[in-house]
Specification:
The protein is of the alpha+beta class. It contains 9 helices and 11 strands. It has 2 domains: 2-111, Phosphorylase Kinase, domain 1 (2-Layer Sandwich), CATH 3.30.200.20; 117-240, no CATH class. Strand 3 (36-42) and strand 4 (45-52) form a beta hairpin. Helix 6 crosses helix 8.
Length: 251
Amino acid sequence: MRIKINPKYSKLKPFLENLHQNFDKKGKSIYKGRNEIRVFEVEGLKLNVKSFKIPHLINKIAYAYLRGSKAKHSFEYALKIREYGAETPEPIACVEILKNGFFNRSYYVSIHHQYDFTIRDLIGFDFPDKENILKQFAVFTYEKLHKNNIHHLDYSRGNILITQLANQKYDFSIVDINRMRFEKMGYLKGLKNFAQIWASAEELEIVGKEYARINQKDEKEAAKLLIQFDVEHKEKIEQKQRFKKRLKSSK
């Protein structure tokens, strides 16, 4: 077992040491797919624990000896993101389990983050104050992420949490952060980042124009470019899906 812990939460070490044995028995599951997220109440704290699926053989070796696991990346990236002033749930620890010399399971533990909705809840729907939210989302992405050289590689609908404040103001927080790059985010690269939210042309136009405004760029051109990036992104995903279907049918 390998544990990396935020010193602020050293009192949780006993919980972390027993997490692998207790994960399936305790806590409440709030998401189960390829990975699973469970909520635990420990020492007066509400914790989110994300269990990553057991990797394939190559990654069992790579995660054990060559490079960091998804849980380790999530923990280290969260510390870095918060250091830069952007918001992601406060990281507590990552726990990695090795079995017979091979990487087996990993867990990322963070403080449970209360939020009101995600970008997924408003894209494609008649949502209250939608245009204002999308504009503030564009500002958040530039001011908190791109200006700080933070590139979220999975900037999709469900990974942007939103909390409503007073006076039509909103807070944004990012999750699912194991795939990140800390690199210079030029204007076009930053604009392209929004293509992953799979929005309509009208929604993309709002985001693109606001992103252009704060970057002092042409707003109409930005909207046109973002819609183009969106089409290219969707085509790329659909090509991958068709390829996977052909592989399955050929077996």
